[in-house]
Amino acid sequence: MSLKERARKLQTDIPALFLALKDKETPIVAKVLAGITVAYALSPIDLVPDFIPVLGYLDDVILLPTFIVATIKFIPENVLERCRKKSEGMWKEGKPKKWYYAMPIVLIWLAIIALLLKVIFF
């Protein structure tokens, strides 16, 4: 599978995970992972900012696909296929941009800063 095909597949997998998150047949573990994955994918803030050379883009190339693959392993095949079919063309105009999708990333960075301050000053 070429890189272009994988990128196209990600465009349908993220909305499919969003739909699986709401599906009653999706197990709790898969819902938690799907919530984390979708929040990270839709967040306007990356865990590793893009302006950091190499590492900034590696999180988009490695971290997000890893989240997606891990989440898909916990979703039953019939649920995933149903959600993939529903999600085709779902976000053609681009992914939704909501400020609250950034909250988990902001909270992680605040926790890291708080831990660093605690280590440095105490």
TrEMBL record:
Pfam families reported for this sequence: DUF1232
The keyword Transmembrane is assigned to this record: yes
Subcellular location, principal: membrane
Chain ranges passing through the membrane: 100-121
Domain DUF1232 span(s) in chain numbering: 30-65
Keyword annotations of the record: Membrane, Transmembrane, Transmembrane helix
GO CC terms: endomembrane system
Membrane topology of the entry: Multi-pass membrane protein
Cellular location(s): Endomembrane system
Tagged with keyword Transmembrane: yes
Origin: domain of life: Bacteria
Protein name (Swiss-Prot/TrEMBL): DUF1232 domain-containing protein
Organism from which the protein derives: Marvinbryantia formatexigens DSM 14469
